[in-house]
Amino acid sequence: MATSSRVVLLSGPEIDTEAVMRFRLTYSGELRPSGREPDAQQPDPLALHKHKLRQAFHVQLKQLWATNKFLREHELDPRAIRAARPVGDDRTYWSSGGRRAPMSEIVADQYKEFGYRFLPLVREDISLLCSLKILFLRRDIPGSVISAGDIDNRIKTIIDGLRRPRNGKEVLGNEVPKEGEDPFFVLLEDDKLVTHLEVETDTLLDPPTGGNFDHRLVHLVITVELRPYNVTLFNLSFS
Predict the structure, then answer these.
(1) What is the C-alpha separation between 128 and 46, in angstroms, rounded?
(2) Distance from the Cα of residue 80 to its chain's centroid
(3) What is the Cα–Cα distance from 12 to 102, expressed in whole angstroms?
(4) How many whole angstroms separate alpha carbon 143 and alpha carbon 163?
(5) Which of 76, 126, 125 is nearest to 96 (CA)?
(6) Cα gap 57→22, rounded to integer Å
(7) What is the rounded CA–CA span in Å between residue 65 and residue 54?
(8) Whole-number Å distance between alpha carbons of 53 and 25
């Protein structure tokens, strides 16, 4: 009998291009469901929890930027970024002459927010869309995460941990970056750039330690695929 359950939560328009970058992110630990989106005056009660996920992904994305030749070595002219050219305009990223600096530093300087310099990989200005396929292992009855109705809320917590914060309340309790968190690497500039999302759930067979059968403990393997919706020389270089 099959023990896994698979659901497609979001399926956007078909983009007739191959993925220019594919990699996996992982997370092991507690995963709490998000409640209703807090309003502008109300702090998110899961802010500390979501930032813990954000920190786990930060370490892995930092390694991605350090090991991918293009991300590590490409340099930009800060004047071209400030020119605010149209989305996908190659001249912004391939301009010649003038002072040039590492792409990671130039982009991070554009996202100085809430005491941090965030460095999102998937951004609207480079015409990239993001597909997420999540293998969701948990200590529960097979398929129950889907049928229990809380899958959306638990996946929302994951997505919030993959994007940059929208306001200072999302880093409440973490107002000062820790060592190694400047810049702070995140996957998404905004969650609207996720155009395909599917989840496969199965039982986590790793035996609980000390009899701790906590249903909130999970192991996630997130396959990330990036595709250009407006193909340019720049975004094809991500491969």
Answers:
(1) 29
(2) 26
(3) 33
(4) 27
(5) 76
(6) 15
(7) 16
(8) 11
| Structure-block tokens of residue 118 | 């965030």
What is the 3-state secondary structure of 173-227?
Answer: CCCCCCCCCCCEEEEECCHHHEEEEEEEEEECCCCCHHHCCCCCEEEEEEEEEEE
Looking at residue 225, what is its pLDDT? Answer: 95
- Are 192 and 120 in contact by the 8 Å Cβ rule? The answer is no
Which residue in 160, 138, 131 sits closest to 222, CA to CA? Answer: 131
Q: Which amino acid is at 212?
A: N
- 132 touches 194 (CB < 8 A): yes
The pLDDT of residue 17 is 66
70 phi/psi in degrees, rounded to 5: -65, -50
The confidence score (pLDDT) of residue 80 equals 59
Tell me the average confidence (pLDDT) per consecutive run of 10 residues in the chain, 239 residues long. 66 68 96 72 84 97 96 81 49 61 91 95 90 90 53 90 94 92 97 93 79 78 92 79
Residue with tokens 């990036």: 226
The tokens of 184 are what?
């702070």
224, 129 contact by CB (below 8 A): no
Pair of tokens at residue 111: 């996202």
- End-to-end C-alpha distance for the chain, whole angstroms: 39
9 CB neighbour count, 10 Å cutoff: 14
pLDDT of residue 151: 73
Under 8 Å between Cβ of 71 and 64: yes
Amino acid at 228: P
